[in-house]
Known about the structure:
Layout: H1 3-27, E1 36-40, E2 46-50, E3 53-62, E4 65-74, E5 87-93, E6 98-102, E7 107-113, E8 120-126, H2 127-136, H3 140-143
Antiparallel strand pairs: 1-8, 2-3, 3-4, 4-5, 6-7, 7-8
Amino acid sequence: MLRKPISISIFAGTVAASLWALAPAASGGSLGPTEGQTQYLPIQSISYEFGSKFMSGYFVQEAATCSVALMIIEKSDPEAELTATVTRVRLVLNPGQIAGLDSEEGYSVNLTCGESAKTMLVDFGNREKLMALQALALPDDLTTSSPVH
């Protein structure tokens, strides 16, 4: 019966995150620096602008993994009618795994599940730099293996 309360709290968090995600797009405000790294705890709000995109969400520790819920929306003119739709992204990352989100303008956000899934490390900035960081995190057998014929 533990499954239902977790589902309800994830649903409530997703609704809150989606409503909160629309506020910066409507206000036109910037969320801070264009490059950096921040560490988050479970259910702490994660929000970033990268290029023409805005991302908001959170993660929870579930079965020794980081269960991530994100809402991604196209930034828009605060004076214009809101016509963009939100995309919901669900990820399950093992500790040490990285997921990357890219915008067409060359900006990215990397999400890294921390040790024992107790934290989430978020890197944001230039796509090329973050893709290189993500490649460094791959296990050696994946980066040095030859193509299958």
